[in-house]
Amino acid sequence: MDQQKAEEYRAILQKQLDELLREAGKTVSGMTDEQENFPDPTDRASMESDRNFELRIRDRERRLIGKIREALKRIDDGTFGICESCEEEIGEARLRARPVTTLCIDCKTEQERQERIG
Ligand SMILES: [Zn+2]
Question: In this structure, how many other beta carbons lie within 10 angstroms of the beta carbon of residue 39?
Fold first, then answer.
């Protein structure tokens, strides 16, 4: 992949990362406010399940943040856009849709097939 294109992806990834980090910050302060405003036990129960829901979301966000950081590192070392399984270039449409991907569509399809069997 040429340098200019790699920098385009870096900008996309960096923007996603900034947004995720901003959202993560918002969620934490939102949780603190709720705790103060609902002392009633019933509300506390629903607050607990809200919090579990939030934690699940945040777990997914955290993993995505990790993937974005890895993708940025791959841009730095020049391996971005190369399938880590077959070492072919990943199609551009796929990268556009999902810049954090590390597998080309063929390897991804194969991986999902294996997972279904396993
Ligand atoms: Zn591949």
Answer: 8
What's the CA-to-centroid distance between 12 and ligand 1, angstroms? 23
Please state the residue numbers annotated as binding site for Zn(2+). 83, 86, 104, 107
Range list for CATH 1.20.120.910 in the chain? 1-78
State the CATH class of domain 1-78.
mainly alpha
Q: pLDDT for 47-89, tens place per residue?
A: 788 888 888 888 889 999 999 999 999 999 999 999 999 999 9
Q: What's the pLDDT score for residue 34?
A: 52
CA of 108 to the centre of ligand 1 (A): 7
pTM, two decimals, is 0.75
